[in-house]
Each structure stands twice: as C-alpha cells, then as structure tokens.
Amino acid sequence: MRQxxxxxxxxGIAALLAPLTGLYTLFLLxxxxxxxxxxxxxxxxxxxxxxSIGHAAFFGMGAYAAGHVAKEWGVPTExxxxxxxxxxxxxxxxxxxxxxxxxxxxxxMITLAMxxxxxxxxxxxxxxxxxxxxxxxxxxxxxxxxxxxxxxTLYALVxxxxxxxxxxxxxxxxxxxGHVLLAIRDNEAxxxxxxxxxxxxxxxxxxxxxxxxxxxxxxKAITLGLASLPDVHWTMSGTVILMCLLGGLGTxxxxxxxxxxxxxxxxxxxxxxxxQIGPLAVDFSTKVPIVIGLIFMSCVLLFRKGVVGxxxxxxxxxxxxxxxxxxxxxxx
Amino acid sequence: MLDRRANLxxxxxxxxxxxxxxxxxxxxxxxxxxxxxxxxxxxxAVRHGSIHALIGPNGAGKTTVFxxxxxxxxxxxxxxxxxxxxxxxxxxxxxxxxxxxxxxxISAIFPHLSVHENLRIALQQRMVSPLxxxxxGQAVAGLQPRIAEVLEQFDLADLADHRAGELAYGQKRIxxxxxxxxxxxxxxxxxxxxxGLGHEDVDRVTALIKRVAVGRTVLMxxxxxxxxxxxxxxxxxxxxxxxxxxxxxxxxSRDPQVIEAYLGSRARRRSKA
Lengths: 332, 273
Description:
The complex is a heterodimer.
Chain A: H1 3-17, H2 25-48, H3 55-72, H4 77-99, H5 104-124, E1 134-135, E2 141-142, E3 146-147, H6 151-174, H7 176-186, H8 188-193, H9 198-224, E4 226-227, H10 229-232, H11 234-247, H12 254-272, E5 274-277, E6 280-283, H13 288-302, H14 306-318
Antiparallel strand pairs in A: 1-4, 2-3, 5-6
Chain B: H1 2-15, H2 17-20, E1 22-33, E2 36-47, E3 51-55, H3 62-69, E4 77-82, E5 85-86, H4 92-98, E6 100-102, H5 115-123, H6 144-153, H7 169-182, E7 187-191, H8 199-212, E8 217-221, H9 225-231, E9 234-239, E10 242-247, H10 249-254, H11 256-272
C-alpha cells in the first residue's frame, strides 16, 4: 500500500474514533486545524531541509482572511476556505520568492523578518481589529444549505478538508516532484548538475506549504470563531516548529502527533489551576511556556528524531536486515 | 540573440571542419580569488568524440577550470562556448539541459535515495517540472527499461534497492558514473573519477569510462597518470593557473616544461621531507 493511502486510512480511523472518546469537540477541532498547520510546515522544512520561521504569517493571514470574508461579506464557508488557501499561496510566493535564494540561517532570518513585517501590518491594519482580533466569526453554511452551527457537522467538514490536504501533501512527496525535493536536500549540487532548476522546485514546495498553512489558519478561524494577533505572531512559528520536532520532523505522521501533544498540553495545563507541591503552590495555568520549554529541551537532548521518528528507527533496528554488503569495489 | 547565433554558425562554416569538431571551447578563461589568479587565461578546446584529460600538479587550477566550465563558479574574464553557442552567462542547470553533465570529486550521489531512485532522478529531469507537482509516478514509469539497462551495464542490478548511502566507496563512484552516463550527455565532465580508489578498482573504473565514452565526449580532471595515459586522446597540462602544454600523452610527457612542473614539484617535496 502506498504511504499516502495508509496515512489517510490511519488518520481517517483516528478522526472517526476521536469523538467517541468523549473529548470536547472544540478541542478536537483545534487539534485538527493545528495538525494540518504542522503537516504544512513539515512539508517544506522536513522535506526541503530549510527552516522557515515565518509560517505564522501564512497561518495568521489565512485566519484573518477567512474571518474577514465570513464575518463582513458573509461568504459561504467553502469559498472562505479557498480564500484562506489563496492568501497563503500569495504570501508564499512573495516571501518565498525573496527568501529561497538564500541558504541555512539566512533563509530562516528572511522568513522571520518578513513574517514580523506581516505581524506589524496586522497590528495597524483596520480590518484585523488590532488587540481584540476578529471575534465571533460565523461558521456559515456549506454550499448555501447545510448549516455548520452543529459541532459534529463542522467536525466532519474540517476533518474531510484537513485529511484531503494532508493526503495531497503526502501524495506530492511520493510523486516524481517529491523525489526531486529529496534529491535536492540530499545533494543540491548534483541535482543542479543533472539539470534541475532547484530554486524553482524549492519555491514551488514553499508555496504549497504556505497555501496549506493558510488553509489551516482558515479552518482555525472558522472552528474557534476567532482570528487574533497571536495567530500571526512569531511565537506561533515557534510553536509549529516545536510540534514538528516533538512528533518527528520529516515523518508524515510525526507533525500530526506533535500538534496533538502540544495542543493537549496547552489546554490541560491551562485548566489545571494551582497545585500544591510541598511548600510551593504552583499555578500551571500561567506556566505553560515553562513546561513546553522543558519538554522541548528534553526532546532535543533525549529523542532528537521526535516521538514518531524514534519509533520508526526503533522499528528499523528490530527488523532483521538480510542484505549483505557486497564489496563490488574496495575503497583504498 | 538570434543574430548572434546566425553569426556564430556562419563562422563555423568559414572555419571549416576544424571548428565544427570542437564541442566545448574556452577563451582566455580567468578566475581571481581576491586578487590571486587561480586560473590565469586558459584556452581550451575539446574535440567532439574525444577523451580529453586535464592534468597538472596540486594547486594548478584544474578543479577551478572545471568549475568554471560547468558554471559552478563565474569567471572573472573569458568566454565559454558549447557547440558554437556562447554559454558564458548561463546558469549551471541550463547547461545540463544542453547535454553537459558533470560529476564531482566527492561522490555525487543522493545518499538517502535507493540506487534505483538515484538513476530515476537522473533520467526524469525532462519529464517533471516545478509546477507539475501533482504528476504521479506513472508519468516516469516508461523509464523503467532504461533504468534496468543502466543497472545491468554497471553491474548494479543486485544493489538496486539499497540506499545509495550504504554502498561501499567504490560502488558509490560507479553509481555516480552510471547516473552521469544514464542522462546520455553530449559532453561528460568527470572530476577525478578514480580518486581514492584502490589499484584494481582504478582499472575497473578506467575500463568503464572507456566503454561509456564511445560516441561521447569526455573531459576529465585526473591525477592518476597511468589512467590518463591509458584512456585520454588529448591532454592539457595546467600549472599555476596556466596551460603549459597540450597534445597526446607521448607529446606532453616529452615536453620539457611538463617534466619540470612534475619533477620540480616532486623534487621540492622530497627536499621538504
């Protein structure tokens, strides 16, 4: 079975079972939206090997765009999501077009700088509602008939959209295009010498990633009814990097697992309140960044490949390897 | 641009068969690294269908010339033309699409892809585009017979599903040669194909190069004189960024400047030791 089909199957079953666990539907919706965001980020950084610290711009602007058109213009939900995808793509072309010529840390810094410009634009722009953000964004109707006011109807729509996008990204990686991306990451000079226009390939991957990040922002705005400054702030880019590292950057399931872990932690800690540890009363609801930071540190120190990444390599170690190295030519 | 091309082809006609035979030509090639001329005005003409070797003592500028010819670095001055067309300002990827494919001193493979995938990447370049990301695997399925043929030709069939990074060093070099040949380049540029190989392996790679060079043009940088004597039709000798001799092996090995360049550097090394 293809990996994309398998991934679709696993995630589909998980999404079907999730509501049966009795978890809050809004929490599940948030998980799905962020899982898509993490998958979009991973598609570029995990496969191309360039770190983007600007993905909050695509996510946040996708959310604002969706919020604005749904709230002010009453655009139907399916079109709203297409618009947020388009906003992500458009910004991706602009930011990617400027950053893609650079390597390593310079690339990361340009994406960060551009994303910060977008952030300050959002602070000033009239349609974003500044500090308040866009609140009470209507969920609208699907194709003008089906009302999305019901949580489960909305959940079904969000899951279908997110799974389609995640499957699409995985399929692209299995296509010849994806193989070229992996080849470029492995040995860029060789890919050039074989005639590949590597910058165009990287830009194409970046724009794909940005579009899906925009779509994830749109989903988030519709489901939570809120688009605000934290969505477009650089810490959001940091959060998505953490999600991918925690789950396993470069794996197809890792970012999704990582997103669920981070969202779960954030919501559990926030609702935990003060806990008495010996003489100390620790209020975890205000210590979310500290806990997340500690987890990040232990991830970097102990399981660098992330949860899914470590599982995959443990599995590979266990599998007996029948291959024997046949020295065709000996090195001197 | 069109006018220019027309002029060039006219010139070819005037020049007669002699210029028409030249596939790659460099004029006054020069590269300075902050004032130091690594390559100081080299003229080079590679004839169609020949194996041309670029040799010289360490630091002679062989690899720099190589990188200039493949556009991986930009020349400070000079002109390069391929099949009569000026390619001095073209990006390196465009060169590959014209049929100039190079190898690298360090093994140029994709370590995380399988041997089979390495070959497919080399072959599918014309079939994919950065914009057709949705094109599925069936678009390149037609490459399968050609991949199998190349795997067979280079004795790599048993290793097809191995990750290229897991191969032994010599196997990597052979895979690299295979991917370069697979693209059926008009001009193959090999950067020290036998570097780091043991004795028998040098013979093996030499035989492979001889075999795949039939009907193609090869320009290579090489240290191993025995190998050069064995395969090269024409040799250019570089020293301190300048070409000091050119000709067949017999011609250049008798050239007093070449003897001085090689013995001179050897004598100096001995006095140091």
